[in-house]
Amino acid sequence: MHGMVEDQIAAGKPANVANVVAALVKAGLPRHEVIHRVASVLSEEIFHAMRDKRSFDEAGYVRKLRELVGASHGD
Fold first, then answer.
1. Among residues of the chain, what percentage have pLDDT more than 90?
2. Is the dihedral of CA 27, 33, 39, 43 positive or negative?
């Protein structure tokens, strides 16, 4: 999962992944922890897509990533 998140950051797709990582690091979280948090959201979306036999919901994934930024203010 680490590799998948790093690949998303490098490719800029979805574009918001790099922004979320940067925001969480700026908020004071260690980058490694941030990658784990993003990977957790990615894993959850992949799981639901496979379980429900549907396409990966990129918009939903990005929305959940943005929620991580909001949640980091309460850490």
1. 88
2. negative
